[in-house]
Amino acid sequence: MTSTSSKPHDLQALDTLTGGAFTAPTSGERAARIRDWLAGNPSSEQMQEVFKELSGRDKGAARLLREKLDEIKRAKGQEAIAAEWAQKAETLLAQSKLNIADALAWQRDAAKAGAPLSREPLAGLKAQLAERVKGIEDLQHRAQVHREAAVLLAQRFEVLSTKGWKDAQAAEESLRADVTHWQQQAADIVADANWNSLDAKFAPQLEASKSQLLVVSDSFHGALAQAVAAAADAAAPLPPVPVWADELRAARGEVVAPKPAAPARPAAPKVDPAVRAAAQDAVQAALAKLEQETAEGHGKASAGAAAALRAVLKEHGKLVDAPLEARVHAALVAAGELEGWQRWSADKVREDLVAKAEGLLKRPEGQALGGRKMQETLRALRDQWKQADQGGVPNHALWKRFDEACNEAHKVVEAWLEKVRADAAEHRALRVALIEEVKAWAAAHAGATDLKAHNRALHQFADRWRDAGHVGEKVFAELQPLWNEAFGAARAPFETAQKASVERRQAMIAEATELGAQPMLRIDAVKALQQRWQHEAQSVPLDRRHEQKLWDAFRAPIDEAFNRKTVEREKASAAMSEHDRHVLDASKALDAANAGGDAQKIRAAIAGLEAALRGEVPAPAPATTSDGPSVGATGVEAPGQAAAEFGESAEQTPGSSDAEATPSAPAAAVADAPDLVAPADGADASARSDSAAHEAGEAASVAPAAPPKPAPKPVVAMRGDDRPSSKKAEAAPAARGTGRFGDRRDGGRPGAGGPGRPNDRGGPRPDARGGDRGAPGGGRFGDRPPREDRGPRLGDAAFRAQREALERADMALRKLAAQAHGEALTQVLGAWEQRDAARLPSVQELGRAVTPAVRTQWSQAVGAAPTAAASDAAEALLRLEMAAEVPTPAEQLDARRALQLKLLTKRGDPTPAQTWGQDAGKVLAAAHDAATARRLQNALKALLRK
Question: Which residue, among 548, 625, 646, 636, has the nearest Cα to 599 in the 3D structure?
């Protein structure tokens, strides 16, 4: 017997849950139903269960579930990550001094960790940090602009000191107001909340600008006040400003000392005529070359000749006379016109470079260049500018714009370099701390026995070293030898254990090779060896590839031995036994009976198959003549004949006693044939009542079967005893279950008492415990039931064939029984409607629930005219519904409750379940009605099955 599984019920429930995804005919429709089901947001437990069952059936539809489950898992992980980075952002915002590099690093590291920066709360925190960073940068810009404003104010004081003192007096009030306004703005900058977050250099620079501006302002106002006093009083001292002092002296009528004249230039030294002539010859040669190239229209060559002429002029320009110098300038102008297109092209290149440099900081949101990329871009732009300057005249205006844009963009590079240096220092400290931690761990776990944990910890240390961050090449070259030394010391015990484990495994491989080479494979030794291997593999981990190679080498000889044993077993089982052929033939006969749809033939075939399973040899088919029975007669006699054969074979018992079977066995089998055709626990309940009607025909159709052949006597091994006094008697056949465990099979040892003496352990016991334990009434106390005879052992093909045939036969019998039940109920309702007792089914067709007396009452009620009152029929119909436990129509519920209360007062009367046959007769005695017929059909449908 095989145990039933709840998996079909689970699949049916999952199919109902998913809207028929498991029963969908195509993969596309199955995927569509899974999508519709997922749109309803089912629970993750339901999705896990559906994915587990669907992954082995349809990978495409299961992929939708896997993606949904992965999305839920990522969402849960992102929630935890978001909470962690939100806490870090709140910590940064709460600091009074915020480092811009830390804020930028938070956004970069959060994105690298997979935090959802586009969703709240990280989106709001990101905006707050960006606003805070923007405020700090704006404050830095304001501080720098304020310093430049202080310089400009100081320059205004200096310019006014070069003019008249009256002009300075007119501008004094505006200057005083500007200085006061500058001081207020400086105070606002210092009072800003982000002032503490600025770099430490800004505070002293702003303070120095303030002090310098105040000194200049005080000096200017003091000198101006002294000039005003000197103008009002001739005896007052003059101001320290020279221009104002000279103006006041002139106003007083004093003589102003003239400015000293510039010293005369010394006369040029005389030049040697030979040197002058050589210089003019060199200039004329270069000039002739330039004029020739210009006349021929060679642009590139003229540019080279003009450059050569300029170089000669730098060296000999002072020695050239005026006419020759005029020719040189004319030639250079002509060459310049030829080179104009080159200068225009160079200016176009410079303008493009300026646009690129100015656009580095004007990129869209989210596309800003990083520090390294910005550094490489700036270096490439400057190299392109140098190349543009080599072929033409420099353009200072474009160069100024280009240089300012590059310097502004280089601030990003400076911030990045500062962060890189800080990160490198942090990473170096982290690596040094990790090396010290590895050394301490190696000293603490030098004698560790849990090698798996040891190896896991080593892998964790290696991962931490790998993920410790970037450091420079020099720092890495300094730290790597220290790490190798510390990690090698920590790994040394594990490597020693691995070498010893490899040696032990090689020894086990050699032992496995010896076991596989033996002619008889010892399963216990193989299991013990495999257990040793598993224990070794679990205790000492190796490299996966190396361990797989060792395992393959260990498994190969054992697999080869098992394959050799499997081939021998298959050869032995290939030859099908006589018993298996009988079972296969009986299974085929049962399948043929199932295809025919005859319940009697199916039962007869089941009986024949059960007889074949018990090892009974089927009787040969009787010879048929040309005028044999018809097809219909064969269908009637076959069940009885099969039952007789089954009953005849049931009397035979396996063993040596088969040869002594009496010829009276067939008669006894014929007497038991009806019970075998319709067993008490069969699938069709109505078949048991039909067996009485066919008993006479089945018994008459049984043909006597030939007696079976006696089974051959088994060969029993005898003890080899070469003693002269030993008696080589024939060994008794070994009975299954005879004697106790450990008893000798040769009838006892020879001794003084001889075999069979009471005190001999090898002889039979005088008490009730002796004898065959497998016989009836056996067992230690004689109360064990007899052992069931299961027949000879079947091969795999025969066992599967008989099991499947019996399952199909059981299903066919159930189907036939259900069909017969429905037809009988339809015939009852039709006979009631037509008032024809002849159409009423027989007792056998109605089943065991209807007795002949009840059937007679129904026949009388149907055959006569309607005589029952409507109230009696209604009450009988309610009793039928109560007996069948089926629902009553809504309009009859009050009547049913009243009847139930009435029955409670009459406890001595029979219950509706006991009188449902008579109640059905009362309903049939009334007039036919469609609604009443439907209620009667529902009640009898349940009652006839009981």
Answer: 636
Structure tokens at 811: 């299903």
Q: Count the neighbouring beta carbons within 10 Å of the beta carbon of residue 197.
A: 20
- Of 907, 862, 903, 869, residue with least CA distance to 883: 903
**Which of 254, 218, 256 has the alpha carbon at shortest distance from 235?**
254
One-character DSSP codes across 449-481: S-HHHHHHHHHHHHHHHHTS----HHHHHHHHH
CA distance 586 to 432: 83
**Coil, helix or strand for 847?**
coil
Q: For the purposes of burial, counting CB atoms within 10 Å of the CB of 735, is it exposed (0-12), middle (13-18) or buried (19 or more)?
A: middle
Taking CA atoms, 760 is separated from 645, 671, 736, 752, 755, in Å, by 47, 48, 21, 10, 7
Residue 148's nearest CA partner among 182, 120, 125, 177 is 182
268: Cβ contacts below 8 Å, ≥ 6 apart: none
By the 8 A CB rule, do 658 and 711 touch?
A: yes
Q: What is the largest CA-CA distance in the chain?
A: 176
Which pLDDT does position 507 carry in this prediction?
93
Rg (CA), the chain: 58
Question: In this structure, what token pair is assigned to residue 692?
Answer: 């009485």
- What are the angstrom distances between the C-alpha of 205 and each of 143, 148, 154, 276, 415? 9, 11, 16, 58, 20
Distance separating alpha carbons of residues 675 and 193, to the nearest angstrom: 105
**Count of helices and strands (H, E) across the chain:** 34, 0
CA separation for the pair 126, 167 (Å, rounded): 55
Q: How much is the pLDDT for 103? A: 82
Output the CA torsion 345→351→356→360 (10° steps): 160
Is residue 791 within 8 A of residue 613, CB to CB? The reply is yes
Residues 6+ apart with CB under 8 A from 200: none
pLDDT the model gives residue 391 = 54
As a dihedral over the C-alpha atoms of residue 599, residue 600, residue 606, residue 609, rounded to 10 degrees, the angle is -140
**pTM for the full model?**
0.30
Cβ atoms of 647 and 670 closer than 8 Å: yes
| 3-state SS track over 721-778 | CCCCCCCCCCCCCCCCCECCCCCCCCCCCCCCCCCCCCCCCCCCCCCCCCCECCCCCC
For residues 70 and 789, give the distance between their C-alpha atoms in angstroms, rounded to a whole number: 57
Least Cα distance to 182 among 194, 174, 171 occurs for 174
Looking at the DSSP assignment, which residues form a beta bridge with residue 757? none
Length of the chain: 946
Residue ranges in the chain modelled with pLDDT below 70 = 1-9, 255-269, 297-300, 335-346, 390-393, 572-576, 617-791
User: Angle formed by the axes of helices 242-252 and 202-232, to 10°?
Assistant: 10
Asked if 795 contacts 777 with a C-beta cutoff of 8 angstroms, the reply is: no
Task: Fill in the DSSP letter of residue 357.
Answer: H
Q: Decide: residue 690, CB within 10 A, 0-12 exposed, 13-18 middle, 19+ buried.
A: buried
Classify residue 121 as exposed, middle or buried by CB count within 10 Å of its CB (0-12, 13-18, 19+): middle
Give long-range contacts, CB 8 A cutoff, 24+ apart: 164-170.
164/243, 164/244, 164/247, 165/224, 165/227, 165/228, 165/231, 165/239, 165/241, 165/243, 165/244, 165/247, 165/248, 168/220, 168/224, 168/227, 168/244, 169/224, 169/227, 169/228
511's tokens: 């032992």
Q: Cα separation of 850 and 886, whole Å?
A: 19
Helical spans, DSSP H, in 758-869 = 796-834, 843-846, 852-863
DSSP one-letter code for 651: T
Predicted pLDDT at 933? 87
C-alpha–C-alpha distance, residues 30 and 225, integer Å: 99
Amino acid at 117: L
